[in-house]
Amino acid sequence: MIVADANLIAYFLISGAHTAAAEKTYEIDSHWVAPPLWRSEFLNVLVNTVRAGLLKPKSAEAVWGRALSVILAEQEPDWSSTFSLAVSQGISAYDAQYIVLARTLGTVLVTADKQLLRKFPAHAVSIEQFALGRGTETGDDTR
Question: Is residue 110 part of a domain?
């Protein structure tokens, strides 16, 4: 089981430079969990992709449907932990939800977010590294 952020989901479902690594990530571990906010973030990705002319609205609708089947579980992270982490680490409450969820579940967040990768090396791993089989273990990323 991994925590998947909206970018991983987008890379998996919308063909692009990171799609191969996202597909390999899914091959390695297809049990993807996310906080409910992933829906709003992913919807925004679809809107921006349609606006950029990379997808037609009908295709975006199909991608949305596939995304709903990719996320096997949604779990709301603890509010207090999310708030504390966001304040103490200078990250958004949105990003903190993904990290708190990974910590709570004892797994990793697979992401392309450079800030999260840098600040939380024990709980966040890049899509490319995960696809290579690295970063599947969790540890302590407090410094």
Answer: yes
Q: What is the CATH number of the domain that holds 101?
A: 3.40.50.1010
Does residue 26 belong to any structural domain of this protein? yes
Number of domain units in the chain? 1
pTM recorded for the entire structure: 0.91
Q: Are 113 and 95 in contact (CB under 8 A)?
A: yes
User: Does some domain include residue 137?
Assistant: no
pLDDT at 72 over 90: no
